[in-house]
Specification:
With about 425 residues, this protein is α/β, with parallel strands linked by helices. The protein is built from 13 helices and 16 strands. The strands form three sheets. Strands 1, 2, 3, 4, 5, 6, 7, 14, 15 and 16 form a ten-stranded mixed β-sheet that branches. Strands 10-12-8-13 form a four-stranded antiparallel β-sheet. Strands 9-11 form a two-stranded antiparallel sheet. Helix 11 packs across helix 13 (about 400-420).
């Protein structure tokens, strides 16, 4: 990006802070929880309602909404060369159960606000500028998460995505078809297309920025993540008659496995993040020896070598600790650590300085869709603080001033793309 191509008046452009905040709060009302949070699951009626709002706002600004086979939502400010690789910016609209008002949705609304601001000023960029809301980033209804960005990037097949089911047995295929049926006039793009750059704005979901008194985080990369589905199988028995020595108690086996995992994997070093976040016991009756325990494990580390080592150790501990029961370990996600484009990182620094905000370099401890765009094109992330580092909770909060600052950094970052003379973008295979 050549800043010489952007004249000084454009550098004074700012987003409409009130509109940005009002739209965030309007979306927060869809799936609102009693505690002030949001429960807006992927491909749910709540997400369909959020699409209606987004599409209405887009059409009122003269922008072009579209979707694809995996249920990603795209909103484009048309460029002069409609065939050239576009610039994408966005995040996701789905939430965790009892999640917050800002996780994911902030990046989508900030992107829409930037496009709307430029559309109102009559800007026609050299290439399409596209706001994107990726399908099922959270993975709380359908596992694993990041289905939309993975399918877009070719990491996961559309057939594999459509085959996944939620806890009620509803498959993604049926939920996707219902989403598309709700918007019959919406144009469908091909699944996966060349992209010239990707930028994602997001709350930090940690306390580093707040502790350092910085408004903008220039994200250097994302730490690696592995997730596993583990099933421990034993044998059902009568709680009053079956001798302890004769039992194959799946829950007892789980307790041994969990203790070993927390000690040897979770305690490996200060950088590891190990979580058993979901547990199902069958038959889950007070007077029956449990015959089956299913658990989901989330394992993260910034060093890919350590992450692989701990993944192997996790598998061995499950197998050894389950006896006399049996254990089956199924990997769900294997996402190595990645870095973001240095040129875009520096451009974020310069954009932040132009609007007079503080900044710092920061590694993302949480996973984001940007992970899957980074191998396809120059990619970057912009963080803003969240109060006390809280996220995935009803009391997640971002200050209005920080929300506006992040969107203005995004605007200033993208202005050279909007206003530069037409040049041939580099195409990255999808």
């Amino acid at each position: 990006m050549d800043e010489a191509t952007v004249s000084t008046p454009h550098m004074a452009w700012r987003v409409d802070a009130d509109r940005l905040w009002q739209r965030l709060m309007a979306l927060a009302a869809i799936g609102a929880t009693p505690g002030g949070g949001v429960d807006r699951q992927a491909l749910s009626k709540e997400e369909i309602a959020s699409w209606r709002l987004m599409i209405g706002w887009a059409l009122s600004a003269g922008l072009e909404p579209s979707t694809d086979a995996v249920g990603n939502l795209f909103i484009a400010l048309p460029g002069m060369d409609r065939e050239a690789a576009p610039v994408l910016t966005g995040s996701h609209l789905d939430s965790q159960p009892g999640g917050g008002r800002f996780d994911g949705v902030y990046g989508v609304v900030a992107a829409l606000e930037v496009l709307t601001t430029c559309a109102e000023r009559g800007v026609r960029p050299p290439v399409d500028m596209v706001c994107v809301a990726w399908m099922n980033e959270e993975g709380s209804r359908f596992a694993p998460g990041m289905m939309g960005s993975e399918a877009f990037a070719g990491v996961r097949s559309l057939n594999a995505v459509r085959a996944a089911r939620d806890a009620d047995g509803i498959c993604v295929a049926d939920a996707l078809d219902a989403l598309h049926a709700a918007f019959p006039a919406l144009r469908q793009r091909p699944l996966g297309f060349a992209v010239s750059a990707y930028v994602e704005a997001h709350i930090e979901q940690g306390a580093v920025l707040e502790a350092q008194g910085c408004v903008i985080g220039v994200v250097t990369g994302i730490q690696g993540k592995k997730t596993f589905d583990v099933v421990i199988k034993g044998e059902r028995g009568h709680a009053g008659t079956l001798a302890m020595a004769d039992r194959r108690d799946a829950l007892e086996a789980f307790s041994r496995v969990a203790t070993a995992l927390y000690r040897e994997v979770g305690g490996y070093d200060a950088a590891v993040k190990f979580t058993i976040g979901q547990l199902q016991v069958e038959p889950n009756a007070p007077s029956v020896v449990p015959e089956r325990v299913r658990l989901r494990i989330d394992l993260r580390h910034p060093d890919n070598t350590v992450l692989d080592l701990l993944g192997q150790r996790l598998n061995a501990l499950c197998m050894a600790g389950a006896a006399p029961c049996t254990a089956t370990v199924t990997p769900l996600v294997d996402a190595p650590s990645n870095g973001f484009d240095p040129t875009l990182q520096q451009a974020i620094v310069e954009a932040t300085e132009r609007i007079g905000q503080t900044h710092m370099r920061i590694l993302s401890a949480a996973g984001h869709d940007a992970r899957h765009l980074a191998p396809l094109c120059p990619s970057a992330m912009i963080f803003i603080p969240c109060r006390d580092g809280v996220s995935h909770a009803e009391h997640e909060w971002a200050e209005p001033a920080h929300v506006t600052a992040g969107a203005n950094v995004l605007l200033q970052l993208l202005l050279p793309y909007f206003l530069a003379p037409r040049r041939e973008p580099k195409h990255y295979p999808c």
